[in-house]
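Exercise 3.2. Students should predict the tertiary structure of the chain below and write it as structure tokens, then compare their answer with the key that follows.

Predict this chain's 3D structure.
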Amino acid sequence: MQHFDAVLVANRGEIAVRVIRTLRELGIRSVAVFSDADRDARHVREADTSVHIGPSAAAESYLNSKRILDAARSTGAQAIHPGYGFLAENAAFAEECAQAGIEFIGPPATAIESMGDKIRAKQTVSAADVPVVPGRSDPDMTDADLHQAALDIGFPVLIKPSAGGGGKGMRLVHDESALDDQIASARREARSAFGDDTLFVERFVSRPRHIEVQVLADAHGNVVHLGERECSLQRRHQKIIEEAPSPLLDAETRARIGTAAVNAARSVGYVGAGTVEFIVSADRPDEFFFMEMNTRLQVEHPVTELVATVGGRRGIDLVEQQVRVAAGEPLPWTQQDISLEGHAVEARVYAEDPSRNFLPTGGDVLAVHEPSGPGVRVDSGVRPGARVGSDYDPMLAKVIAWGPNRADALRRLDKALGDTAVLGLQTNVAFLRALLQHDQVQAGSLDTGLVERELDALIAESAITPDEIYLAAALERLLAAEPTGANVDPWDVPDGWRLGEPAWSTWRFAADGGEVEVRIRGRAADAQVSIEPADGESAKEVATDRASAEVHGDVLTVAHQGRTRRYRFAHVDGTTWLAADGRTWALAEHQLLADRGGAGGRSDGTVTSPMPGTVLVADVTAGQQVSSGQRLFVVEAMKMEHTVTAPIDGTVSEVHARKGQSVGLDQPLAVLTPSNQS
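Answer key:
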């Protein structure tokens, strides 16, 4: 056995921060690496040593094995922890580490190769009597082969990339008419994300539930599992809420699926922490099929850490076990020593807009407030002053809650999310709370299609900005203008004083596709208020209504109509950011409606980018005749593609973007002249 004095963390964001925390507890010096975009990132600040490894592009930094190995050598790191994503499941990198005499904290390259190729993995575990989903996974299948295989299996089918994971390159196809386009799109995305466009096809299980098992294996032949996680709540095949244990499985099925996971790990000589993923039909909970094995730590590993119990002590640090196994230590327990206690649920906080089909957002983080309390844990990589761009995955943090039972865990997580605030960009926190409160989620009646089916209802409430938010923003602006100190000149007080009746102070805010005017008379501590549309229509509230507000630090407290509400707030560049109960609002002052871009296409014929990213496809030329709904562009960001279509029938009069060009959120891509004006 060996001892590590220093370990390099070949990753970024919340997982790098989380690994560094365990290294600190183990007394091991941590080495962070960073790109240009991450110079001031949280993981860089928390590590003992940090090394710059290249430009913002992942291919030249976090995916550049040579620069990472050079950083390890120069800092004396004896081991590398890859986190997840980037090089975590790269067999060539694991082999490079071995050749350099640096321990790779993960499985051997042979295991990564066996499980990293999903086609090969299914063949390997099937030989170990692990059930697999019916399908066709011949190597090097052409598009025609895939087409025929889908017809043979019967729709619906899943087109899946052999390499990689995270739902990238995966396509659900319901009928033959869309099959060829989906195969081409899947190949393109798989090639971009993983450098490998090999695809296979398998049967789509009805009402599927995604259940995975955490395994641990050492180099001495010992393999155990730590129970299962339910990961059925997903958007675009990517998990957003996970829990342990699954509310679906009974004790007998839990034992069988755990044994199957251990057998799958043994079949490839696995060493370290890994996850075996299964698909289970909600209609047949006793029947499960192997999907794939993730040869790394999973994003959702905290829920297992919180419920796994050994010798009566709840809580296992999986990163610590990874480090100890890599150092040659045997596992300290057998399967009989392990049990599960209570329930844990995790929610992933993303910089994304659920109302725009979960498109990534971005911006400067103005302020962050993270929850705490009994049973609450936060794994976060975000800090005030950070810039969230389009270079990397949009996940900012994970909020996790443990409870003695599922109902308590859900309740604690909902409260914790209500106390979560990231100001400066839009996040999915309000959506997560709505999802947690959904009747089917509360009942544990889950499947991977639930979010898509219920999306409109889940985002409906957050789509409207209540009047009280406009009022809070105006009162914050009034408080910012009011002078403070022991000696205040009365003439500096913006209370509208004049002979006769005081004057009104007026603020205009743009939101929800319109403008709202807030009028205030008096000081913020006791003011008359009126809220009405900026077009002069009838007032929404009586002019004699009263409100008061005060500020302590970054908390704005507003009393109005018998209710007191507290907000986290920040103000920058004419925009007031407010956060409360998990929701975030950005209210721009005096912003003309003409300046507000659309989500891909406006009724005036302007086609805009729905997210910051790179133009992958530009199927448009000036003078071209197009039809409403026709594909014009494909924009990619964070390894996710979005198709931009024509909003109207007409002629392309202007083209402002070309293939390979970087574009910003709502940046004009083209302009169409309607057919009746051509």
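Discussion points: The radius of gyration is 27 Å. The domain at 208-458 is CATH 3.30.470.20 (D-amino Acid Aminotransferase; Chain A, domain 1).
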